[in-house]
């Protein structure tokens, strides 16, 4: 739920410690003024281009705010459309639960009961239940289906067709594994049972019931501006990766104002979208896991929060509900980087709501990218040095056995090997999540560039050494 790529792609180069308490002042009451003061501090310390925030309590919106700017230079407000990525999963789960309340879907029935088209090479797929999809315990995995084929699909019917040659990573219901496929299959289930396009079904079954008039699935109704990626500290506008943006796993576009209505409903107040019993099911983790249905349970100090984050390649979001106090929080940003500042900002808001002084967020992105920039400069310097001193290296190796010479060249070629297998090892470190080269040019760009510089420096050194070695005479 929190961005796993931070630890994976930053390679644990930097672990930013907590900042000093906000302003070093006594804790302040959770008022709009106190929230605005904290958010201004957060925007300054994180350097985010723009963000929108909402805080709710019980049946009311405490405060909404927008700060910064979008890619066109317009001010971000609480009504600025934002992509919320995997936060969408909680909306998809809610849409399914409205069908459960209508008696049209049963959580413990196989998905194939409602979707005969859902077939895979692995016959165990026929036993996957609706509940297992929403709990992410179905056995579906990025490692065992053709994710590339699913991302080329333009409809949910085409998406399911792309799964037919796939298999499961385990017995349905046996273990938890985060996989977007679960929620895109769930979206197709909503389409088929409801009888309408998924976007239309969610609009009527979820958004309209809660008064979320500025929210939609996909870009047809509400189109956000381009977001930003961070490249060595500089924010660069980028168009979001072209893929099936209407998906149930990450297709929602909404605003901070609308998220306030959503959070109120999730705390059990305001207009009812599902029955109280169904709302409890949506929030209850499956046995042995901390994941419910589009919500996870995270413990922060003495608080047990319902949380889900969302990370696209140019947008980031996080939502949380505190069932014990009735507070709700959402932080939406029009940017993505190796460090997820939205979660840090959310924790600051949680602290404010609890009468505590929030830690000053920020610094993680800047420090991580500074280290990567310095690493790239060092690699470039070593590459230049290696090329310039290749003649002396060759003279020292002349007459040595070929295998000894090859062994001494391996070290400078390691970065090139790492770069060549970059998506593969990133996928491995992310527990099999599918990773593509195109994705590596977005928020992981500083790491990608640093690896490319190191690889080029190593290759240049190796070529120069081999060229000089040939001129120096044969090895033994």
From TrEMBL:
UniProt key word Transmembrane: yes
InterPro entries on file: AmpC-like, Beta-lactam-related, Beta-lactam/transpept-like
UniProt keyword terms in alphabetical order: Membrane, Signal, Transmembrane, Transmembrane helix
Entry's transmembrane regions: 370-388, 400-422, 442-464
Pfam family of the protein (one): Beta-lactamase
Beta-lactamase-related domain ranges (all copies): 35-345
Keyword Repeat appears in the UniProt entry: no
Signal peptide boundaries: 1-23
Name of the protein in its database record: CubicO group peptidase, beta-lactamase class C family
Organism: Micromonospora coxensis
Lineage, opening ranks: Bacteria, Bacillati, Actinomycetota, Actinomycetes, Micromonosporales
């Amino acid at each position: 739920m929190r961005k796993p790529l931070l630890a994976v792609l930053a390679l644990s180069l930097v672990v930013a410690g907590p900042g000093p308490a906000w302003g070093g002042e006594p804790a302040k009451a959770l008022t709009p003024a106190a929230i605005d003061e904290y958010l201004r501090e957060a925007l300054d310390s994180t350097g985010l281009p723009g963000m929108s925030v909402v805080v709710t309590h019980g049946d009311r919106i405490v405060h909404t705010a927008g700060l910064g700017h979008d890619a066109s230079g317009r001010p971000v407000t609480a009504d600025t459309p934002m992509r919320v990525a995997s936060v969408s999963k909680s909306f998809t789960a809610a849409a399914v639960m409205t069908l459960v309340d209508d008696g049209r879907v049963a959580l413990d029935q196989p998905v194939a009961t409602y979707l005969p088209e859902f077939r895979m090479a692995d016959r165990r797929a026929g036993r996957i239940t609706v509940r297992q999809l929403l709990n992410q315990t179905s056995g579906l995995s990025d490692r065992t289906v053709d994710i590339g084929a699913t991302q080329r699909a333009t409809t949910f019917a085409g998406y399911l067709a792309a799964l037919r040659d796939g298999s499961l990573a385990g017995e349905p219901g046996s273990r938890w594994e985060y996989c977007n496929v679960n929620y895109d299959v769930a979206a197709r289930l909503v389409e088929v049972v409801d009888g309408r396009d998924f976007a239309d079904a969610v609009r009527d079954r979820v958004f309209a019931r809660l008064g979320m008039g500025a929210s939609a699935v996909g870009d047809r109704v509400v189109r956000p501006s381009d977001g930003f990626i961070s490249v060595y500290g500089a924010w660069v506008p980028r168009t979001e990766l072209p893929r099936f943006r209407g998906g149930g796993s990450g297709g929602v576009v909404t605003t901070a104002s609308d998220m306030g209505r959503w959070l109120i409903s999730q705390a059990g107040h305001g207009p009812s979208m599902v029955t109280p019993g169904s709302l409890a099911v949506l929030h209850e983790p499956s046995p042995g896991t901390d994941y419910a249905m589009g919500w996870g349970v995270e413990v922060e100090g003495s608080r047990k929060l319902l949380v889900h984050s969302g990370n696209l390649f140019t947008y980031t979001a996080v939502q949380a509900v505190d069932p014990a106090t009735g507070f709700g929080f959402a932080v939406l940003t029009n940017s993505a980087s190796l460090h997820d500042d939205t979660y840090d900002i959310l924790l600051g808001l949680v602290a404010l709501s609890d009468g505590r002084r929030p830690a000053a967020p920020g610094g993680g992105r800047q420090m991580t990218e500074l280290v990567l920039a310095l690493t790239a400069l060092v690699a470039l310097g070593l590459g230049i040095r290696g090329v310039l001193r290749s003649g002396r290296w060759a003279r020292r190796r002349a007459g040595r056995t070929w295998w000894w010479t090859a062994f001494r060249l391996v070290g400078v070629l390691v970065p090139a090997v790492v770069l060549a297998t970059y998506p593969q090892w990133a996928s491995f470190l992310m527990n099999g999540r599918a990773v593509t080269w195109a994705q590596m040019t977005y928020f992981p760009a500083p790491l990608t560039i640093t690896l490319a510089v190191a690889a080029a420096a190593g290759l240049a050194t190796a070529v120069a050494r081999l060229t000089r070695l040939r001129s120096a005479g044969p090895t033994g």
